[in-house]
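Weekly structure sync - notes
Attendees: PM, LS, DV (DV joined late)
Agenda: review two folding runs queued last week.

Item 1: First target. Sequence and structure tokens pasted below for the record.
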Amino acid sequence: MEDLTITDQQDKGIELLPEGVKDLNEARKWTMFLAILGFIATGFLVIAGLFMGTIFSFIPNTDLPGALGIILGIFYLVIAVVYFFPVLYLLQFSQKSKKAVEERDSNFLAEAIGRLKAHYKFIGIMTIVMMALYPVLVLIFVLVGVSSAF
């Protein structure tokens, strides 16, 4: 079996067939659509975060503490900031893919794939964080439930 060196791999290169260019262009359109929706959702999260205290003050007959609205508002703003970055990476992938397809430039394609990698890396890290937090949150909810029963 023959070992390929780095120079052998670089010399081979990767060629994108017309079907691949067509698929990339279609994926680009969908990622642009999803990025726009993501920015709209981020905007709604920011608006909700800014007005959460006011919204909670108008709820009649409630025993909720007044600070709960402020805490939820901060939580919404944090979620908006976290959600912003993968959406930004998706938008950048779409923009760079469009340039790569229009100009048939492999440098733009490499940049686009780098942005797509950043998007999925961010999503992967967030998934790991959430999976680690779920057991902790379940434990907290069980403890709060048990303590409120007494």
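Item 2: Second target, run right after the first with the same settings.
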Amino acid sequence: MDATGTNQPPPQARPAPSAAAEPASRWHGRTLGGYWLFVTCAQLLRIVGVPGSWIGSWFISFPFLLFGGRFQYGSFAYWRRLRPDAGLIGLLWLMWRRYASFGRILCDRQLAFLDVKRFRFVCRDLAHDLTMRSVMSQHGAILLAAHVGNWELSGQHLHVLTGARLHMVMVRDDHPKVQAFVDQRMRPAGISVIDPRDGLGAAIGIYAALEAGDTVCMLGDRVIPGQPTITAQFLGAPAKFPMGPFHAAAITGRPIVASFLVKTGWRTYTLEVDEPYYIVLPKNRRERALVLEHAVQHWATRLEDRVRRYPLQWHNFYDFWR
């Protein structure tokens, strides 16, 4: 057992943390197509339901494949790492399937808020579920998530299960009308949003929420410009991960709870919640850096395991290693 509270061996390579992240993507956090397309699709979902969204996702995702999806959205680099022996036709088929998967995830989020009974949520392990409920409802925690499966629905489902106040750290840079639509119709009471682009304000909000015993949901697989990062090995190459969740856990003494909500059927989602673990920083500054690097590498290894198992459901559409 190491200082992070995990049983994972130390990583072979320990790159030094970088002071700030470089802009590594074209991702900007906005809904493509504008407000009226977004609202039209949202209203149509009331009629077509889950079967219609499944079929429609193939048609809607096809333009992304035709117009730059192979490179602008990083899919070519991604599938080259996961399927190095695949030919061009095979890669295009995988890209199309991944875009369609993302479309279904977005539709499911809206459909779940219209009627959550449309879907079945299954917990991987009841003992883990009970532990997670106790930690989140009594002491607060950092819920570490990723763009695997339906991460936003995951946070809201956990909020319902635990009754804990939840703060979601996410970029709010969408079209103002789209943002208002989402806030009013797709975000239940008891859940607030912290925008990480306001570095100081976000840090204060995160630490205040954790000190109050609330749960803070943070994404561990996307970096915005200006965020401190730590490099770890991921899918066979070094990649940058945000330092924020791990630094917040170390400073506040709150545990990290890794969570994934993956789609395992037309109407079924499986919730996977890991055992909580703590990051304890030693007094020696050099050892502190190693502990943080170890914690990030542990997360990168865990994320890689989920990505390899559900490769169509990792919805990060830019070159993650660039």
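Discussion on item 2: Residues 119-315 form one domain.
Action: LS to circulate a short write-up before next sync.
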